[in-house]
Design a protein that fits this description.
mainly alpha, protein dimerization activity, HATC_C_dom, RNaseH-like_sf, HAT C-terminal dimerisation domain-containing protein
Length: about 110
């Protein structure tokens, strides 16, 4: 939290919100919130959207953290796309062909022979 929040006051507020989360207070204490929190198949971003009203600062931070993996995957795929499209000759590839090449290059398990 120290790396993402520079303001000491806000950090203190967020620490108190974390304590409320851990103690299942406020909106975190609802039966549905408790049940869904323990459900391994429930989407964490959806959980924070539905039950994070007691801790608006932590809710924003949680949503930022949960979106990091999506951003990194998109950036990685864009990088692979640029590698595949690298030459002027490849620049003329049809969309479907380009998509297939990016998929093959970006999927590690397909690139390994057993």
């Amino acid at each position: 939290m120290k790396k993402m929040v520079r303001d000491g006051k806000k950090e203190d507020i967020m620490t108190a919100e974390c304590q409320a989360y851990q103690n299942e207070e406020g909106s975190f204490g609802r039966d549905s919130a408790k049940r869904q929190r323990r459900n391994k198949n429930f989407d964490p971003a959806e959980w924070w959207s539905n039950h994070g009203s007691s801790a608006p600062n932590i809710r924003v931070l949680a949503m930022q953290i949960l979106s990091l993996t999506c951003r990194s995957a998109c950036e990685r795929n864009f990088s692979v796309f640029q590698q595949v499209q690298g030459s002027k000759r490849r620049n003329r590839l049809l969309h479907d062909k380009m998509r297939d090449l990016v998929f093959i290059k970006a999927t590690p398990n397909l690139n390994k022979r057993e």
